[in-house]
Amino acid sequence: MKLIATLAISALAATTAFADGHQDRTGWPESFTVATASQGGTYFAYGSGWANLVAEELGLTGGGEVTGGPGQNMALVHTGDAQFGMTTMGPAAEAIAGLSPIAPGLAMTNACAMFPMYQTPFSVTALSSSGITSIAEIPAGSRIGFGPAGSTSDTYFPRMMETLGVEFDRRNGSWSDLGGQLQDGLIDVIAFAAGVPVPAVSQLEVQTDVNIIEFTQAEQATIMGAFPVAPFDIAASTYSTLEADARSVSMWNFAIANCDLPDSMVNAVVDIIMSDNERMMNIHKAARSTLPENWTKNAGVIAWHPGAAQWFIDNAGADIPADQIHSK
Fold first, then answer.
1. 251 closest CA partner among 87, 12, 75, 88
2. Residue 123 phi/psi, 5° resolution?
3. Which residues 6+ apart lie within 8 Å of 306 measured at CB?
4. Taking burial as the number of CB atoms within 10 A of a residue's CB, which of 14, 45, 221, 236 is the most buried?
5. Residue 147: HSE in the Cβ half-sphere, 13 Å Cα cutoff
6. How far is residue 236 from each of residues 99, 196, 200, 246, measured CA to CA in Å?
7. What is the dihedral sign for C-alpha 156, 159, 164, 166?
């Protein structure tokens, strides 16, 4: 069953050209969904927030849908079961190449890039009472929660842990469920791959003492050499638990659209999201990176939706090669 976040059915005030009907809406659907991820994670909070914002501004019915995360989102948007979604570059590249574990052999080329979201840092959290303060201190056989099955975290973090020599018992579940299991002693560690602050970690901080564990310089270098990630520091201001920036690695996230959606609709959506970063920051702090200049972070991984590409060309001076724009 689809769980749809709070719906914003119509605009209360026609503040833009989109809301007052001055734009060609030929072929627009009357409603839309944004494929997000599990509750308790950044994808759900961020995705449901911009879905509601777009629904209000455009006078449509829309909301966020709980999913298994980036890999499943590529499939849902590719097939048109969801109009919009969010994905991470690693799973997106695998899906486009037909290597997704969701549907092996299916090249998901009908999911198009729409706008840059933010970086997903990979971080580890344990209860302070566990005594675990570093990756090396994770005992062999520890029960580690890697998020929903098929998510970015579940796809990459187990392999990262194996690369670092950690022996573990793999567990899956929504971030909020895993947070509860950690607090109850049912698992020992959570390996998060989610935009920060992760709601589940923020909730844990309120209820108990936790250790947010960073990578050592050597561990960071090892991971960067083996996986499509970049260096990243989780700012000390992100969590009350942190006393200094925490060394991490990250992977970029992009919003995606079904490639068959009308150019005018996708252009309108991108304009709403990219034109007012303060409004996006009010939805989630991870949106500090949802900026026009970050269109470059796609780097040819996902073909651009023509409506989105035109917005970045017109408003961000983007030089997007024609062969990186989806041709209908």
1. 88
2. -140, 160
3. 263, 266, 325, 326, 328
4. 45
5. 32
6. 37, 11, 17, 7
7. positive
Q: Which two tokens stand for residue 44?
A: 């759900």
Q: What is the largest CA-CA distance in the chain?
A: 62
DSSP, residue by residue, 212-260: EEPPPHHHHHHHHHHSS-EEEEE-GGG-TT-SS-EEEEEEEEEEEEETT
pLDDT at 22: 62
Q: Give 67's Cβ-side CA count (13 Å radius).
A: 30
Read off the tokens for 275: 């034109």
pLDDT tens digits, residue range 21-63?
A: 468 999 999 999 999 998 888 999 999 999 999 999 999 999 9
Q: Is cis: bond before 228, omega within 30 of 0?
A: no
SS3 284: coil
- State the Cα–Cα distance between residues 210 and 201, nearest whole angstrom: 9
Facing residues of 148 across strands?
none
Residue 225, Cβ neighbours under 10 Å: how many?
A: 9
Listed in sequence order, the residues at least 6 apart from 166 whose beta carbon sits closer than 8 Å to its beta carbon are: 135, 138, 140, 142, 144
* Domains, the chain, with CATH or none: 31-118+253-324 (3.40.190.10), 120-250 (3.40.190.10)
pLDDT at 11 over 50: no
Q: Give dist(CA 58, CA 180) in Å, integer.
A: 38
Around Cβ 278, how many Cβ atoms within 10 Å? 7
